[in-house]
């Protein structure tokens, strides 16, 4: 069966702001309380979607979530009318108000883990919404993520959308950011590689000392069970705890894979040789040879990888049998990375093209090209069965640019979150968006 990969990018929501909510994510912490530009953020994301769609790559979007999250605010004791809830939260706990306003669902790599139908026991495409329970501002995303995914992938003959795992530390799950599928081609059975940062129950597994490990082994195993993956084609690899402590809060900040290629930093995994060995053996079972593209510390130190987001890139298969690496502009500005990339495309290996984008608004919160997208490999029948209103076209691009221009502010400071008008603006914008995308009732909870 042939299949095509679609990237579902998160459309940046109108409340995009810098609140420093993600301990362990260096960019989020460094930019705390600076002014954001939600309009520019959304336009930067749309420009990426448009350009990749125009190149013929499968491109779609996932809608933003309604903000502020009044359910969260009310559940922690802020009462009264909506305006009163906002005023009390702004006065008593601006940080909780910022959590309720976060536009973090834009990083759709964290929306869910996805297993294509070629990998699952029941021949359906499976999603498990990620509970994101490590961070208050993200721990509530899964309900709407599952809702949006069910609205797009409705047909239960083809698709299964599972609710998030229990929201407890033992099952900390960050979705596709710690999951990579390696295969011969997108339509045939592949090997699913789950990278975890710690284990709840196996005390022999070392954990980071400074920053949290957001993904547990137990969560990865649970997702594999829910998706009906075979044991021979599921590989569990421990992330190097030392790089988590250097700001690598998800595996997709230090490694990216596509088809049979794994582009990774030598320090990415706790046991590099063991990880490659496991992958090679599992991939032999699906007739694929691992193409391990290793970046040495001497070429690119971990700090430069984190600053540039070299590995938070998208690796996309092209018609010429080669791959393009979609990178953030910052990669051209960090000297070691720029030099490395020049050599990479000249090397004759699988990656023969660099496509770069200005995604600075998202990058300042620690979200690069790969964070902004959820990969879904779809057979022709599945691509036809999904909701078509989210597929990126030139027409949709222009409609959404006009919608952003109409509804989004070009400056948001922490104090603006107290403005009751902002809540009304966001809600009005999203109501109109649900009509544009042909998804009525998307935000009715
Ligand atoms: O979860 N940043 C996100 C960035 C997610 C990146 N995703 C992947 N690597 N796949 C996070 O840390 C910052 C929000 C703030 O500080 O306002 C934030 O949530």
TrEMBL record:
The active site is at residues 174, 250, 371. GO terms for biological process: L-arginine catabolic process to L-glutamate; L-arginine catabolic process to succinate. It catalyses: N(2)-succinyl-L-arginine + 2 H2O + 2 H(+) = N(2)-succinyl-L-ornithine + 2 NH4(+) + CO2. This is N-succinylarginine dihydrolase. Its EC number is 3.5.3.23. Substrate binds at residues 19-28, 110, 137-138, 214, 252, 365. InterPro entries: AstB_sf, SuccinylArg_d-Hdrlase_AstB. GO terms for molecular function: N-succinylarginine dihydrolase activity. It comes from Duganella sacchari. Gene3D superfamilies: Succinylarginine dihydrolase. HAMAP family: AstB. Belongs to the succinylarginine dihydrolase family. It holds the Pfam family AstB. Pathway: Amino-acid degradation; L-arginine degradation via AST pathway; L-glutamate and succinate from L-arginine: step 2/5. Homodimer. Catalyzes the hydrolysis of N(2)-succinylarginine into N(2)-succinylornithine, ammonia and CO(2). Keywords: Arginine metabolism, Hydrolase.
């Amino acid at each position: 069966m042939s299949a095509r990969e679609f990237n579902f990018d998160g459309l940046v929501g109108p409340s995009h702001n810098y609140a420093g909510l993600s301990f362990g994510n260096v960019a989020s912490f460094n930019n705390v309380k600076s002014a954001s530009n939600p309009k520019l953020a959304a336009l930067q994301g749309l420009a990426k979607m448009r350009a990749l769609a125009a190149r013929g790559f499968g491109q779609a979007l996932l809608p933003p979530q309604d903000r502020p999250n009044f359910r969260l605010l009310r559940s922690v004791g802020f009462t009264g009318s909506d305006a009163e809830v906002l005023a009390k939260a702004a006065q008593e706990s601006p940080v909780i108000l910022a959590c309720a306003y976060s536009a973090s669902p834009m990083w759709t790599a964290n929306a869910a883990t996805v297993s294509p139908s070629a990998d699952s026991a029941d021949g359906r495409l499976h999603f498990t919404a990620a509970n994101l329970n490590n961070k208050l501002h993200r721990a509530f995303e899964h309900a709407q993520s599952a809702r949006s995914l069910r609205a797009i992938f409705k047909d239960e003959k083809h698709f299964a959308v599972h609710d998030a795992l229990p929201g407890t530390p033992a099952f900390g799950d960050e979705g596709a950011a710690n999951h990579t599928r390696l295969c011969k081609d997108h339509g045939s059975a592949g090997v699913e590689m789950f990278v975890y940062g710690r284990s709840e129950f196996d005390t022999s597994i070392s954990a980071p000392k400074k920053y949290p490990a957001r993904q547990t082994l137990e969560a990865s195993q649970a997702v594999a069970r829910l998706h009906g993956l075979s044991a021979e084609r599921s590989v569990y690899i421990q992330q190097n705890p030392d790089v988590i402590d250097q700001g690598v809060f998800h595996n997709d900040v230090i490694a990216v894979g596509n088809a049979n290629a794994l582009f990774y930093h030598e320090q990415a995994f706790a046991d590099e040789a063991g990880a490659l060995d496991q992958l090679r053996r599992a991939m032999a079972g699906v007739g694929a040879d691992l193409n391990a593209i290793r970046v040495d510390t001497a070429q690119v130190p971990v700090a430069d990888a984190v600053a540039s987001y070299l590995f938070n890139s998208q690796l996309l298969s092209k018609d010429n049998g080669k791959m393009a690496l979609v990178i953030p502009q910052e990669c051209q500005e960090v000297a070691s990375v720029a030099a490395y990339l020049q050599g990479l495309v000249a090397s004759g290996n699988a990656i023969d093209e660099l496509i770069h984008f200005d995604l600075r608004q998202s990058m300042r919160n620690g979200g690069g090209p790969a964070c902004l997208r959820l990969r879904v490999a779809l057979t022709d029948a599945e691509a036809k069965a999904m909701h078509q209103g989210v597929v990126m076209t030139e027409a949709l691009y222009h409609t959404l640019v006009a919608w952003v221009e109409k509804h989004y502010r070009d400056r948001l400071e922490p104090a603006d979150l107290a403005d009751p008008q902002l809540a009304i603006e966001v809600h009005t914008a999203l109501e109109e968006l649900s009509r544009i995308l042909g998804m009525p009732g998307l935000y009715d909870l």
